[in-house]
Design brief:
Order of helices and strands: HHEEHHHHHH
Shape: globular
Number of strands: 2
Pfam families: SufE
Protein name: SufE family protein
CATH architecture: Alpha-Beta Complex
Number of domains: 1
Family: Belongs to the SufE family.
């Protein structure tokens, strides 16, 4: 998975249509999430599309599997995951993920329907990290 900084570097040079294509590409590049993990328990609430996030890993290296049934939304999920993927749990729990995503200006680049679930995705990831970090 590409780093958020690498993605941002490319994103900043693109026009709106190409930014959509980049998000779709990021979604396609997500590690496959087995269908068996796409359950009500892993479903992110408040998203216009269906989004699933499944945490794995341990205190030293959190890892997330994620998927969505909508291409653009899946790309947004990929951005969120790339901000936190394979980092220590305590770091993710304390991280300002929304701040890390702010340079992408998603709320002005995409419709509100596409971005409304982003805070819920971030909360799920950070809450999981906080539980793991606390032991």
């Amino acid at each position: 998975m590409r780093s958020l900084d690498d993605i941002l570097e490319e994103y900043e040079f693109l026009e709106a249509d190409d930014r959509y294509r980049l998000l779709i590409e990021l979604g396609r590049d997500l590690e496959p999430m087995p269908a068996a993990l796409k359950t009500d328990a892993t479903l992110v609430r408040g998203c216009s599309a269906q989004v699933w996030v499944y945490p794995t890993g341990d205190e030293d290296k959190l890892h997330f599997l994620a998927d969505s049934n909508a291409a653009i939304t899946k790309g947004i999920v990929a951005l969120v995951i790339s901000a936190v993927q394979d980092r220590p749990a305590d770091e993710v729990a304390a991280m300002d993920v929304a701040g890390a995503l702010a340079p992408f200006d998603l709320s002005n680049q995409l419709s509100s329907n596409r971005t409304q679930g982003v805070p819920n995705m971030i909360a799920l990831v950070r809450d999981h990290a906080a539980r793991i970090a606390a032991g």
